[in-house]
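USER:
I would value a second opinion on how I read folds in token form. Give me a protein, with the fold worked out from its sequence. Write it directly below this note and I will take it from there.

ASSISTANT:
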Amino acid sequence: MPKIKSINPYNKEINAEFDLLTKDEINIKITKANNAFKSWKNVSSSDKKKLFIRLSEILLENKAELAKLNVIEMWMTYKNALSDISKSAAWTLWFANNFEEILKDKEFNEWWIKGKLSYEPLWCIYSVAPWNFPFNQVFRNAVPNIIAWNVVLNKHASNVPMVAQKIEELFLLAWFEEWIFTNLFISPKDTDYIINNKLIRWTNITWWDYAGRNIWKLAWENLIPSLLELWWNDPFLVLENNDLNRIINDAVSARLWNCWQKCNSAKRFIVLEKYYDEFCDKFSKKMSEVKFWDPMNDENLLWPLAKRSLVDEIESQIDDSVNKWAILLTWWKSISSDSNIFPPTVLKDVKPWMKVFDEEVFWPVAPITKAKDVEEAIYLANNTRFWLWCSVYGDNLEELDYVWSKIEAGNVFINKIVTSYPFLPYWWIKDSWYWKELWERGLKNFVNEKVIVY
């Protein structure tokens, strides 16, 4: 029987193996989830709130054990892994404390017409989660889906199956009924088969661009709504300022978080000409000093990438850019032909026609581009197909206000590193998105907004 394997990215040892589901087994799980929905949709808000508060508590109670799964499956640093669990718990608690207000009936009285809007669940939701934050990427989607009285069938990334299994166990440990959250050990090609199942009424996918487009097309053919998060290409702008050293420290942190494997980390550094040479020199020096090897050591900021295949993609992007005259500031190439370890690579004189500028760099690569003035910085920042968020650094408040108003982004952080919160919309634009997440939208995506007139 085909299996899915959990492989330690550093030493390539097999952590565990799991059998892939057959199509008959997939059908059984979908049917049982559908049956669970029929009772789950009638659970009271107060009882549901207790379950989600309990789920948040269980995450925190087992934080150390859960974080170690992140370490051995994708070699996340233990410090970041603890953050992955804590964030999942905090977001779960936020939705538990706010869903009743967001989803309560809304009265209206307009044009001599009275009535209300009432929110009802959709049914079974199929989700595909990525591996870079193995717990939070699932909880970010599953919690608002389920707290809106839907049930979720989740396919996690193939390289984190132990986390996938553990998440299902956590829901059961929190006293959720079986099949409210269902883990699916399946191959990627089975996604098409699942979306074609008439019991599936929504898809929630975080994946790469080409695969996401294919899933959207299949969902559209089945008249199923879809929420897609695809590639990101977030800029980090350096404008007029009096403290370049602080900005450089933030730039390094913005790129290094989770070994560069973070969707909304800074992907492109666009620096005004007057600061360009100093920024390149100091930024590349700090990157070359990054320590790596041991993920349990908080001083180490770099460690093996989650999958060897990522190394091949890195080398393709860098080769393309160097051949088009980008300049390497730090050395590159993986440690060995079979290693997942890739040293920090900084390139300057990067142009829009190079891969490291035009595509998402989801690994240890930092492209730097020179802008002769603010207008060119805005032009370069907006010159991408993929965009979600942006950091803008500077001291001139008038200039900052002008720049953020011209930036084509869902979220702009002024003099701050980009991050996400459950109480703010998770917005993105261009080819990065299809629908929105978190905040009240993260709940209302997955409900039927029923209109009652009386």
